[in-house]
């Protein structure tokens, strides 16, 4: 058992480190969505239009997506605290560049740095939780991180709009970047744990990564990952475009009589829907399975986007957009909150971490591409561009619903839970296996496998 990771003896120190990890993760989500409610300030700062804002936002997702397949390898190959402080340094540096430069090209570099720095944070937080918490407590970690992201989404809407109006875009960037940098330093100081040497861990992780890729491409079950990846390319590509770029701007351009401040408050309701859906859907999916939420959510969001495209003729009030965005966030969370569980269940546990890393690439890539292309349509169609985008996104989510038909149901609950309840009384209860030196290492390995498997069931947000 000498190879086990061991954290600080003080439980208070462990929870402080985990709380700091949650704070840094909330900042990464805030970085992801921060441009959506302040597009007018961003356009003024860089002297650009909504298409330029879309490209600026997409730079975050390009580097974020490219880094996803290897972030787990990087965290294992180095100590988690060094990964976290390096991430926070890159986030802070990118925030400084984005805030102080006036050139749009330099702004692209700043946002790309921010995306690169944000990429390893979630995996690093999960790493700490798997070491510091017992399996019984660890299962709550993904939900807590999702709540942190939801809170950041609420802060990164109307409150961020008011703060930007008060102190300006430059100091907002500096403040958000610094909010990640300070906890990163504290994690580097407090987040100790001992394990096998970094060199041995790095070599083992690289070998496991290569073996996982090889098995993924030769595993017949991996074929079902293709429709799942395509689904989230279109589904998350649309949701990232709304949450990170077009959200509040959609409202004020469909109805110019609505102020940008009021629009940002209505857009806040999207984050409220995300929190509700993200918390509720994992429990609901125990009874519905994994596939139905993907079908229903994409179909209903297609109708919501159609409503966005059609109601512009009636100059709808702001509260109407608020209702639409509430349900938009709710249904977005309904699909994404079970997508990672489906991805994990399609392959063996041995390669699940590798597959999750590869899978993460496609939602972020979709967000990057659609944030580049959809604002260009608005640029070239100043009068009805937002209606055109609404119709395009209607088709985009309808296509995702069509792809969902080909998804493979992976949840065992819908087919076995009733039978297991029926025959529970017929099962013999086996006595626990006594702990001996011979089976100690095997049970320890199983414990770590359970923690690793649980760590990858949480959505990104995931969005």
UniProtKB/TrEMBL annotation:
Name of one Pfam family that matches: MFS_1
Domain Major facilitator superfamily (MFS) profile: 17-412
Keywords: Membrane, Sugar transport, Transmembrane, Transmembrane helix, Transport
Transport listed as a keyword: yes
Localization annotation: Membrane
Sequence intervals crossing the membrane: 12-30, 50-75, 82-102, 138-160, 166-191, 223-242, 262-283, 295-312, 318-339, 346-365, 385-407
Catalytic activity: L-histidyl-L-alpha-amino acid(out) = L-histidyl-L-alpha-amino acid(in); L-lysyl-glycine(out) = L-lysyl-glycine(in); L-alpha-aminoacyl-L-lysine(out) = L-alpha-aminoacyl-L-lysine(in); L-histidyl-glycine(out) = L-histidyl-glycine(in)
Keyword Electron transport part of the UniProt annotation: no
Protein's membrane topology: Multi-pass membrane protein
PROSITE patterns: MFS (PS50850)
SUPFAM superfamilies hit by this protein: MFS general substrate transporter
GO molecular function: transmembrane transporter activity
Gene Ontology annotations for the cellular component aspect, listed alphabetically: membrane
Spans annotated as Disordered: 418-441
Function: Lysosomal dipeptide uniporter that selectively exports lysine, arginine or histidine-containing dipeptides with a net positive charge from the lysosome lumen into the cytosol. Could play a role in a specific type of protein O-glycosylation indirectly regulating macrophages migration and tissue invasion. Also essential for liver homeostasis.
Oligomer and partners: Homodimer. Interacts with lysosomal protein GLMP (via lumenal domain); the interaction starts while both proteins are still in the endoplasmic reticulum and is required for stabilization of MFSD1 in lysosomes but has no direct effect on its targeting to lysosomes or transporter activity.
Protein name stated in the entry: Lysosomal dipeptide transporter MFSD1
